[in-house]
């Protein structure tokens, strides 16, 4: 009986470990199954220790599973000291929830003032915002003026919905360095999309991508408590599945755009996908992940009942060298926590060298 159970767990583990390479376009529910990877690694570890203590040769199977799945441990949790006062290009990514995230009867105006104050004080050279709300009609709500014009930042703001000259929401990139080119990779009719800006940093140019991939579109009231999730589980599963499929399509467009970039790429934003997903592993094949290389702890970025989700990320080309990464869990002004990183590069960025030759 133990052989049968161990064998089933082993085969199931291998199947799930491989499933991160399968596009949800072909198997829509694959992204939901991969959520079982962390508990399966724990099960294999416990099974290995139990069989080892029992001196069973069968312990070899869960050991192999743990070894193969070891990469998922590094994706989930990191232990390393944080570098103090890192030097280099600092970046920040933050889903702002339209600058209107309130809980427990909070005054929305006070919340907005708090978040604007924190963003103005944050020293990052480049700031990428998803769900950015802009109001040109009211000085106290003119976020671009407060965060960019009054603080010496150039900016790229792409409207997704609303009247651009009045009130709208979209995506924004703010930079202390000159923006020499900007554009949109794609957009949807809701609040998702990807924009980019080519930024001149001293003698180098780097392309910054600000991404907000397809949301799960689950009503916020359905995620406020466990009971709400239980009551809406069928609708929730359907939306999770549809989101997986749409993100896979968006990812293809984004990766093709990055492949044709004339500069080194730095990609950040809200990916609405966990680290055990096709989206994450597809990007991981061509770029490095800031949390994996310089993060600490679990790095959870979601600020709701499903607190154990890390769906905001910073990916970077290997020509860059990461010096520091942080998840700002002390900043509780949105349904996401902001993330930041600092990068350096010892040599001139390689893609530009190729262009100049």
TrEMBL record:
Keywords: DNA damage, DNA repair, Endonuclease, Hydrolase, Magnesium, Membrane, Metal-binding, Nuclease, Transmembrane, Transmembrane helix. Residues 92-336 form the Endonuclease/exonuclease/phosphatase domain. CDD domains: EEP-2. The chain crosses the membrane at residues 29-53, 60-79. Its cofactor is Mg(2+); Mn(2+). GO terms for molecular function: endonuclease activity; hydrolase activity; metal ion binding. GO terms for biological process: DNA repair. Coiled coil: none annotated. This is Endonuclease.
């Amino acid at each position: 009986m133990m052989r049968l159970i161990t064998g089933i767990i082993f085969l199931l583990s291998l199947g799930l470990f491989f499933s991160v390479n399968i596009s949800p376009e072909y198997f829509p529910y694959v992204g939901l199954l991969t959520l079982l990877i962390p508990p399966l690694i724990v099960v294999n570890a416990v099974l290995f220790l139990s069989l080892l203590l029992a001196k069973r040769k069968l312990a070899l199977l869960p050991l192999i599973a743990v070894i193969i799945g070891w990469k998922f441990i590094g994706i989930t949790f990191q232990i390393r000291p944080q570098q103090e006062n890192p030097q280099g290009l600092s970046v920040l990514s933050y889903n702002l929830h339209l600058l209107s995230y309130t809980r427990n009867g909070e005054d929305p105006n006070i919340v907005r003032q708090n978040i604007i104050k924190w963003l103005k004080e944050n020293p990052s050279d480049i700031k990428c915002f998803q769900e950015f709300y802009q109001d040109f009609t009211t000085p106290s709500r003119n976020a671009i003026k407060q965060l960019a014009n009054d603080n010496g930042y150039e900016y790229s703001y792409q409207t997704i919905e609303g009247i651009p000259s009045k009130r709208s929401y979209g995506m924004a990139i703010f930079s202390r360095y000159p923006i020499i080119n900007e554009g949109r990779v794609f957009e949807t009719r809701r609040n998702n999309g990807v924009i980019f800006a080519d930024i001149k940093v001293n003698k180098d140019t780097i392309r910054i991508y600000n991404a907000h991939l397809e949301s799960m579109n689950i009503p916020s009231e359905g995620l406020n408590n466990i009971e709400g999730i239980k009551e809406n589980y069928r609708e929730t599963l359907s939306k999770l599945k549809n989101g997986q499929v749409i993100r896979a399509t968006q990812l293809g467009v984004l990766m093709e755009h990055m492949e044709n970039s004339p500069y080194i790429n730095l990609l950040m934003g809200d990916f609405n996908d966990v680290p055990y997903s096709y989206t994450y592993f597809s990007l991981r094949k061509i770029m490095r992940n800031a949390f994996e290389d310089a993060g600490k702890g679990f790095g959870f970025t979601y600020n709701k009942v499903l607190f154990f989700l890390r769906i905001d990320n910073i990916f970077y080309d290997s020509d860059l060298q990461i010096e520091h990464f942080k998840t700002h869990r002390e900043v509780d002004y949105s349904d996401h926590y902001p993330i930041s990183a600092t990068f350096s590069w010892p040599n001139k960025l390689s893609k530009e060298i190729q262009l100049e030759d």
